[in-house]
Request: fold
Amino acid sequence: MAHELLRLATAGSVDDGKSTLVGRLLHDTRSILSDTLEAIERASRDRGLAGPDLALLTDGLRAEREQGITIDVAYRYFATPNRSFILADTPGHVQYTRNMVTGASTAELALILVDARNGVVEQTRRHAAISALLGIRHIALVVNKMDLVDFAADVFARIREQFTAYARAHGVEDVVAIPISALDGDNVVTRSARTPWYPGPTLLEHLEAVPVGSDPASQPLRLPVQVVIRPQDEAHRDYRGYAGRVAAGVVHVGDEVVVAPGGLRSTVVAIDTYDGPLAWAQAGQSVTLRLADDLDVSRGDLIAGAVDPPSPVREVAATVTVLAEQPLVAGQRLLLRAGTRTVRALVEAIASRLDVDTLAAQPDVAQLALNDIGHVRLRLAEPLALDAYDRVRSTGAFLLVDDQTGATVAAGLAHPAEVPVR
Reply:
């Protein structure tokens, strides 16, 4: 039986101890190769430390970052007998906030670290806001360095209450707060005797128990076409298949489908894979669909279930996070990439900017700068099949790209057409 997989993203301010925490998780779940551990122990001894400096497991990238090499996200892999994990480790500096969007875009849980001495700071609130905007349903608030506040229960309770209120104001209901010392391992993998007042799970216990995924059958079918397969050899001259990864939902042989944005309809007659044909496929599987009719389908089109297809749009209301030094301004012309499709887009208006401290939408802003979160209106040069992000996450997200340099300017989340952008 295959392990369940949890994708999580870490976030925290500088010096909150994130590197040590990630190192502790890898160390205590025995996910470190013996030669790597020996090298860390040797380097720690050379520094005069009594035990291994687990931050060395993840801080190897820091030197490269200081040399000006852009590092978006480092991915760590570890497993327990009950579950496998992919951890997106994002930088803590404010200028790297945009990288959290990359790391958290596929995450189901955000692990937000707080220094017990500092409590909830601006960067904490920003990470919570981004987590909520990305549709992350679970947040683990990890209050670190409890050893430096004498494991005071009132300090932990104050931080938990402040953060939980903020997260719930953003619509995130599942917040679990855990007091830890990453340096000593308290409540990371093993329960600590120094927090007798804390009845909850250790961090690893929580990561093993948090609900994973959703029923693919609960979402409508979405398959962005990556490649149209038409072999040139005589034996397969009549073969025509549409290959891609099922982004959402389930597809069966015999299902009626719609090809968006054109609206052409047909029936699935075969589902092919490298390992042979299937009777059905679900989200996450890469397949090739064959249809009953010879339709004009190309890369960038979206094959959707006929029961609940997306409505092609020419105007998009969206929440965006600016990821580049280049600000986003009204009148700007960019490329919008959604799934396998790219269309030209005009920034019609900057409707507002989110104040991450008050949660208020600030209207009448001239531009959105690096790391800003704001609401915009876009006009597209051609119809695009786009879902509301809160309904189908995989086909409701997009990127705005500079058409000259190819640089990503912003990441966006589409809103339902009937919901006005503040």
Q: What stands out?
A: The chain has seven helices and 24 strands.
